[in-house]
Amino acid sequence: MKTIILVFHPDLAHSRVNKTLVNALGQEFEVRDMYQLYPDFKIDVATEKHHLESADRIVLQFPMYWYSSPALLKQWSDDVLEFGWAYGIGGDALKQKELLIAVSPGADNYGHEGVVKYTVTELLRPFQATSRLIQMKYLRPFITLGASNISDQELLAQAQKYKDYLATVELPLLDDFE
C-alpha cells in the first residue's frame, strides 16, 4: 500500500509536534511539505493530481487552527479536488482510496464536557463530508491532543504510535455519526 503524507504546516522546520511526527516516519512513506512547495499558494494542480492518483492512502497532516485547518489546505482542496476529476460526472479519480486526517490541536479540552463542547472528530466533519463526496474511505483520524504542552516523552511516544498507525494495513473507518 502506497501512503502519501501531505503536511500542511506553515512553518514545519520550526514545528515541534508536526516535525517530530514526520521525522519518526522514516523512508517508507512519501512526505510532502506543502507550504515549502507552495509558499505563494499557487498550487500545481497536475502535479498534485499525479501524486494523489499514485497513492492508495492519502494523509492530510496539519495543526488545528481555530477549529479548522491552515489556509493552504483549503486552497489546495479548492484547486485540486475538481468537478469531473474528484467528483461529479466522470469524477472518480480518488474512489475507494483511503483518506486519513492527522491533526494536532494545541489544547486538550475537546469533548462534550470540555470547554470546546465538541470532539475533534466532530470538528473534522467537513473533511469527512468531502471524503464522502469524492468517494474515499474516511479513516479514523490520528489525533495528537494538547500539542501546545505535550511533554517530550509523550511526543516521542505519540510519534511512534503515528508511524505504527500509518504502517497498519487495515485501519478502521470512521462511521458517519461516530
Low-confidence stretches: none
Write the element-wise H/E pattern from the N-terminal end onward. EHEHHEHEHHEEH
First CA to last CA: what distance? 26 Å
Query: What Rg do the Cα atoms give?
Result: 16 Å
Strand content is 15-25%
State the helix count.
7
Instruction: Report the sheet with the most strands, covering strand number, pairing sense and barrel closure.
Output: 6 strands, parallel
Which percent bin holds the helix content? 25-40%
Task: Let me know the number of strands.
Answer: 6
Average pLDDT score: 96
Shape: globular
Oligomeric composition of the shown chains = single chain
What structural class should be given to the helix and strand makeup?
alpha/beta
